[in-house]
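Standup notes
- DV: blocked on the single-chain target, sequence here:
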Amino acid sequence: MAEEYQYEPSASPRAREQVELYESSGGAQGNTQRDTGVPVIIITCVGAKTNKLRKTPVIKVESGGIYALVASRGGSPNNPHWYHNLVANPDKVKIQDGPDRFDVTVRAVEGKERDIWWDHAVSTFPRYAEYQEKTDRQIPILIATRR
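- DV (later): unblocked, structure below
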């Protein structure tokens, strides 16, 4: 995928620097969410509008090799940009989890399946429950499975 698209680093210095550290160390550094100690993964996707590669650190919510990507954006009223990129290009996504990099396909989950993943996400990162209380939107969850 990288050969087909030009990489455009995040406009957020914090995200950009974390991605650079994570990738340059093979996932040995920059692998937690700020000072929480909660593990993160790096999502690489294709921009829905720009058609450029985008890389974003997100909280690692995983079970049995399947990843839940929680589009919380800290409880803001809008979904994060990466969410729209994944929805627009669900088969043009990679995950880096530590040193491992692999292609995934993503899909949104709803209903009972979403409830199960939501509970797992909140048990992984309890602040998700606070973020949901801050916003009127239901925080979306995308499931990523290896291709």
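- Follow-up: Residues 28 and 87 are 29 Å apart (CA to CA).
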